[in-house]
Structures are given as structure tokens and as C-alpha cells.
Amino acid sequence: MAPAQPLRGHCPLCRAATDFQGDPQGNIRERLYCGNCGCNARQRAAARVLLEALEAAGTARVYATEQASLFYRTLRGRVGQLHGGEYGVGLSRRWRLQLWLWRHGVFERVVLRDLTALEFADAGLDAVISLDVLEHIVDTGAALREAARVLRPGGVFVFTVPFYPDKARSRQIARLRDDGQVVFEGRPEYHGDPVSGGVPCFHHFGWDLLAMLREAGFADARVLRVHDPGAGLPQGQWVFRARR
Q: Residue 180: its pLDDT value, please?
């Protein structure tokens, strides 16, 4: 079988005309990388929703729930002020992340941040963006309320999670015991992480996540199916957008 031909298009994140590397007929969510910035389909879809939602991206103050990543490095060039952060990393891993940033031309220190307890002032940000993080947080409600707290009126929370569109209600598949041990209700589920190799998943999200966002303080909450072959998105990707 002949290898799949690259899909030619225009990356909405780095704005380059490029070939998207990978099989456009396969599962593209974590693949189909931009030949210029290296970001995958899920990241491009979320970036497109974010940048379209911002009134003035060039002056916007944005918090991203990651820092040592190609996505963060690329998004820095698209918004006015980008704050990143990593969660739950020890000293050795923090040093590896720091070296990664420096090698990729990002000369800032790695900051430890927790989406359930941010140090940002009330209504101080224009946007928060989070990519496949909420499913790894035990208290989803606390994270959603904190995202709402730090956003100004009209600010936007853009995020992705593994979404189950055939499910009306979300399901918690794991809990954290008082001693810190993760206890799964069924088969253990871990998701890949570029550095640690895997982190436990606590939730499978369904359509009630929209109601959870409204209860947390968002005036409007939607889940979008982002589809644009010219942007390296030949298959629709689910992206949530909540407006404060």
C-alpha cells in the first residue's frame, strides 16, 4: 500500500502554508502535524476557536494550562500576553521542562500552576485555553469555577477533552483516596503524556458538561465541531467554547 500523501493547506495556528504530515484518512486528533509548527489537529482546532473568539488577539491576555509544548511556543506569537503553567511536576521533571523551553527558544522560567487554584486576579484575563486537561482533574467543578473567576466579562474559555457525543451524562471513572491513591471503578485508564508517559483519567464527559459550565458562571457554553480540510482538519474536531 502506498503511503498517504500529505494534505496541503494553511495552519490557523502558525499561519504557514504547509503540508500536514500523516494519514488524513486515519484518526487525526493527535496526529496530522503541521509541517511548520508541529502542532496536531486537536491543537489547531482549539487555536482556531480561540483566535476567532478574541476581539483583539494581538493585545489579549491569555492563560494556557501548559507551557513546555510546541502549542504554547507557537501561540505566544499570536496573542499579546501568554501565561503558561505546568502542574504536579517534581524538581527533576521541572528542570527537564525548563531545558526543553530553552532549547526551543522560549526564555522564560517554568511556572507551576493549578487550574483549581490560580493566582490570577478576578476578571483579569481575556481567555483561558486548556487542551485535554479537565479529564485529569478530580474536581471538575472547581476547575470550571476558577476559569470563570479569572476571566473578564465577555472573556472566553476554550478547551478540549475526550468527548463522548453519544452520552447525555458524564461519568466519573476514578476517585482519589485520602492517602492519594487513585481508585478506578473499572479498567484503569491512563492517557499519554509527552514527559511522564501517562496520567490517570478521572472523567468521561458527555453533553451535561455544557450545563456544568453554565452552573460554574459562564453565560454561554457551546461545543463546536471544527471541520476545515484547508486548515488540516479533514475530520471534525470537538472544541468547547464558554463565554463569561
A: 85
Where residue 45 falls (left for φ over 0; alpha for ψ -120 to 50; beta otherwise) is alpha
CA pseudo-torsion sign 115, 121, 123, 128: negative
DSSP states of 99-127 as a string?
HHHHHTT--S---B--TTS--SPTT-EEE
Q: Fold for domain 60-243? A: Rossmann fold (3.40.50)
Domain boundaries, the chain: 60-243
pLDDT in tens, 191-211: 875 445 578 999 999 999 999
- In this structure, the dihedral spanned by the alpha carbons of residues 18, 21, 24 and 27, taken in order and rounded to 10 degrees, is -130
**Residue type for 139, please?**
D
Is the pTM of the predicted complex or chain greater than 0.85?
A: yes
